[in-house]
Design goal:
With about 130 residues, this protein is an alpha+beta fold. It is built from one helix and five strands.
């Protein structure tokens, strides 16, 4: 089994950390400032993490947002977790994407993560009330 890339993040890449989680810039960013928050303990998915680890991720998310606000001044954020291969997970170590969003980075951002695939039912924000 290959070594988990998120189990050995180089110290000089860590931008924030606490007892159970750490954060670093994504090596394949979607937008400027795209950050990953990972558990220090190797767990595959969000559902495998303890409540304490989830709390640590949330606390670190607040710290990371402050840092990103100061450095990049985004206009919004997407926060997401891919779970399982069918959910798009490619590195099987829990990681939370913190993606700063900027006005004009896509033609129409309405719906945010709802646009990852064709919806089963039309989204009300797209003209249906």
């Amino acid at each position: 089994m290959p070594e988990c890339v998120f189990c050995n993040v180089p110290k000089d890449e860590i931008i924030a950390e606490n007892e159970l989680a750490l954060a670093f810039f994504d090596r394949y960013p979607v937008n400027q400032g795209h950050t990953l928050i990972v558990t220090k303990r190797h767990v595959e998915t969000y559902f495998d993490a303890t409540l304490e680890e989830k709390d640590s991720i949330t606390r670190l998310l607040i710290d990371v947002k402050k840092k990103l606000d100061e450095e990049f001044h985004p206009d919004g954020y997407n926060i997401g977790v891919n779970v399982g291969a069918a959910g798009g997970q490619t590195v099987f170590h829990l990681h939370v994407h913190v993606i700063p969003r900027y006005r004009g980075d896509v033609p129409d951002p309405r719906g945010g993560i709802r646009r990852i695939k064709k919806p089963l039912v039309p989204y009300a924000a797209e003209g249906e009330a």
